[in-house]
Amino acid sequence: MPEPVPATPQLLRRVSAGAVLEFMRTAAAVTVTDVMAATGLTRATTIAVCEDLVRRGWLLELENQREFGGYQKGRPARRFELNGQAGVVLGMDIGYSKVTVVVSDLRGRTLGRSSQPFQAGDVGSKERIAYIDGVAMAALRSAETGSEQVLAVCAGVAAPVDRHGDVVATQKFWGLFDLGLAPALKETRGWTVLLENDANLAALGDRWQGAAAGVDDVVVILASERLGSGIVEGGRLVHGSRGSAGELAYLDLVEGVGDTYGIAHLARTWAAEALATDRPTALRDFRPGRVEAEQVFAAAARGDSVALGILDRLADRMARVVGTVATLLNPELVVIGGGVADSADVLLAPISERLKEFTATPARVAVSPLGDSIVTVGAVRCALDYVEKNSLDLELAAPAAPA
After folding, report:
1. Cα angle value 374/130/379 (rounded, 5°)
2. 163: which of 210, 305, 310, 385 lies 20 to 30 Å off by Cα?
3. What angle do CA 315, 319, 320 make, to 5 degrees?
4. Could you tell me the pTM of the whole model?
5. pLDDT band at 122 (very low <50, low <70, confident <90, very high)
6. Start and end of every HTH iclR-type domain (predicted)?
7. Measuring CA to CA, which residue among 122, 201, 120 is closest to residue 157?
């Protein structure tokens, strides 16, 4: 086991500052007593940390006001609030064919966004990095802020990422995301870029703002085009020795599954197969053009027998997937996430009904309300966590003066 890190005064200052900023992210104007109750810090430490964060521009000290304008004896309590304009963070979802960047303030509120398709082909790393940078700058423009305000960036990629933030490029597809993005944007923009697996970020995002809020043992499955999962155990994200915890390649060996294709891909594929026959189906109403998963779900809602058959196959397949996850990891909750989640509510009941056929420890199953934003929400949370933990090392572009 690694040697424990000694609790030096500097480390304690960092931990205390991070705890205060984490509390302030979701709080309005608070008193020293409020901060003490939320963090467990002593009064002297709380005052010292708050005053230091005010000097550095992270907090604002508000003018003392008599409550309701009435008369009160004694000195009014000091009140502080987070300086939400101290800087921004970027959350990126870097897919094979699309790049999405979200700009967030220090409270996690979205200020701007840009999402653009990308034709990957044989384009090299430099061109891909330039494209990602362009999407990021478009997002900053939409937020009416500049690159100098960015305190941290987190980018989700469809590949394992190890504990050092490096892409594990042991497969050709994973290697497409081994771009050298972090050093490139550090050099050109001065940004600190954190890389993370997209399914891991989905788990962080859903546990923060989705169906898994407050759940300590959860698996979030990105289920649109390909299946991948992020694991939270005991409230902590699980990475594994080389960042591959949650990879679902073993599904190639599972009876009734056989690959890692997701709900959107299979619904589209099975719809195309049905349309190639003479079977009557409402799916023909959506032609010309290929039928997408949302249209299959819509046709099933109208009682179309072909679409209902596709949903039955999807439910059986996902029950087997969730069953293996439930057996291996024993989570309290399994969340189905990604763009297809907007339509996948109809699968919950049949999946839950069939789970007992495939596992002795069935988990509760839910669909994420975050849709295709689930990865960027997690990326924003990851970036905010970094800012809070490293606040004493970060210099703000324009520290605000106390009110």
Report:
1. 20
2. 210
3. 125
4. 0.90
5. low
6. 19-59
7. 201
125 sits in which H/E element: helix 125-142
Let me know how long the chain is. Answer: 403
- Tell me how far apart the alpha carbons of residues 163 and 241 are, in angstroms, rounded to a whole number: 8
| CA–CA distance, 133 with 125 (Å, rounded to integer) | 12
Tokens (6 digits) for 293: 């998963």
Q: Which of 6-15, 116-125, 162-171, 202-211 has the lowest mean pLDDT?
A: 116-125
Please, which pLDDT band fits residue 402 given cuts at 50, 70 and 90?
A: very low
Give the span between the Cα atoms of 337 and 229, in whole angstroms.
Answer: 9
Q: Which among 330, 402, 340, 399 has a CA at the least distance from the CA of 368?
A: 340
Kindly tell me if the per-residue pLDDT of 70 is higher than 50: no
Domains parsed from the chain with CATH numbers: 9-82 (1.10.10.10), 88-204+375-393 (3.30.420.40), 211-369 (3.30.420.40)
User: What is the DSSP secondary structure assignment for residue 117, as one 8-state letter?
Assistant: E
What is the DSSP code (8-state) at residue 360?
Answer: S
Residue in this structure with the two tokens 């994200």, named with its chain if needed: 237
Q: How confident is the model over 17-44, as pLDDT tens digits?
A: 999 999 998 888 899 999 999 999 999 9
